[in-house]
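To whoever is on call:

I kicked off a structure prediction for a single chain this morning and the downstream step that reads the tokens threw a length-mismatch warning. I double-checked the sequence; it's 441 residues and nothing unusual in it as far as I can see. Pasting both halves so you can look.
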Amino acid sequence: MLATQRKSAADPRLIAARVLRDVLKGRSLSDLLPERLNGLDDPRDRALAQELCYGVMRGYPRLQALVGLLLKKPLKAKDQDLQALILIGLYQLSEMRVAAHAAIHETAGAAGRLGKRWGVGLINGVLRNFQRQQAVLQEKVDRQPSSRYAMPDWLLQRIEQRWPDSWQERIAALSARPPMSLRINCRQVDRGDYLERLWEQQITAEPVPHTESGLTLQRPVDVLELPGFSDGAVSVQDGGAQLAAPLLELQPGQRVLDACAAPGGKTGHMLELADDLRLTAIDLDPQRLQRVAENLQRLGLQAELQAGDAAHPQGRWAERQYDRILLDVPCSATGVMRRHPDIKYLRSEADIDRLGRLQGQILDAIWPLLKPGGLLLYATCSLLPQENEQQLEAFLQRCGDAREQPIEAGWGEPRCVGRQIAPGQHGMDGFYYARLQRVPG
């Protein structure tokens, strides 16, 4: 019995099935994976479990369409772990270089280790049926655009509208594996010197275009392999996210508010760029705020951290005015799907209106905290105009003392307000930025 328990605890397919079951119930991979992977001691098992989770969610619309063809009737809600195992098996057979017999045997066997012996035969039969009819089944699901492009219908249509001449390129970028990008801490080392340190460790990298301190690795590595990571010499951050802090034109001694700050990548970058910033970072979730504290501690930087709701400012942080405000609002995160592929499942079209209302509420609530003459940078990792330029157009119409300060840059695409980075442009995720100045009355 103990041997079976140990085998179950160290089974990457079982761990992945449990993670995916909880994603199908509405939780996110980024919340689930760090803790669940701790149950796997072997780095190869951790890598396999992570690949299965991310791969299944990256191809979820297509894989789920295949499940619909292979199952005679849908599984009950209580058997979503078996549903997850079927998705895992289909992903291995269609996308991974895993021997078919091993993929089928190990995936079906995991049902027994879940305590559902009846599921072993079901999964074995489904996967073998797929193996026999793979070409025919794939041709059938590819007739539907949402399956062919592994993208929800509603989002596929919006991306086609947004980029009518290059939507397929954007879809491909959103489904690609993301690069590992770094931000060099300019307080400790310059980019050229750090490149040499990487080369000494046989890690190949190249500068991220349009950034002063960004590097993209040729292949991902464990962060502990990065020279100086533990001492704060470098952080992991997408190149698109690195554009935010310089846009604020920070000056020493300024009072800065980082609203919706977690996990703190942009917080740290701002503190690296200017001396003696009086920076206050808030986030609605105290647990996520703890991640900001951990990141700053590793970087050797300090900020005032307070739990707070940007939509309803109250407390000490809300009684001040700020020279600069970074407003990285909650959004659909459709621009970072290559890093968070579970968004394909977790987001719905109804979320866009809800998020739009929240974004407008936060803009209205935070704007009075900006000093006259100060700058506010509105940021999202969304691709959708409703969360980006349309949100800013509406705000500028209703706020008489707000003016756009145009962003003149070589990256991204100008919008009627602000600039948009399309997914994959300059090797970056999809971000939107708009810079506003409060006009003195």
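Update from on-call: the warning came from a stale cache, not from the record. Cleared it. Sanity check on the structure: The chain is about 45% helix and 15% strand.
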